[in-house]
Amino acid sequence: MMTAVCNKEVLKSASSAQNETASQETNLSDAEILRRVRDIRASWSLSERAARREEADRRFENLIETIFAEAA
């Protein structure tokens, strides 16, 4: 059996802290999003790119397995 713990300090934190666009610009163009993504990816090392690709492949495989399991 699992026990849930309520940490009120976490509950009080602002959810907007997770999203930089929550209180700023809410409608970014596709071009602006693409530019930001490219800037972020440009800072990744080769090993980080490989690790992220492996993680993405693993998540995609899990997604496909889940979809086909639900269809069966």
Compact overview of the structure:
This protein is mainly α and 72 residues long. The protein has helices at 8-12, 30-42, 46-71.
Please name the defining characteristics of this protein.
3 helices, 72 residues, mainly alpha, 61% helix
Average pLDDT over all residues: 81
**Biggest sheet features:** none
Helix content: 55-70%
Give the low-confidence spans.
none
Helix and strand sequence: HHH
For the secondary structure, the number of strands is 0
> Hey, roughly how much beta strand do the residues contain?
under 5%
User: What structural class results from the helix and strand content?
Assistant: mainly alpha
Note the gap between the termini: 30 Å
Form type:
extended
Radius of gyration: 19 Å
Number of helices: 3
Report on the architecture of this protein.
- With 72 residues, the chain is an all-alpha fold.
- The chain has a domain at 29-72.
- 61% of the residues lie in helices and 0% in strands.
- The protein has 3 helices and no strands.
- The longest helix is centred in the C-terminal third of the chain and has 26 residues, at 46-71.
- It is extended.
What is the strand and helix layout of this fold?
Layout: H1 8-12, H2 30-42, H3 46-71
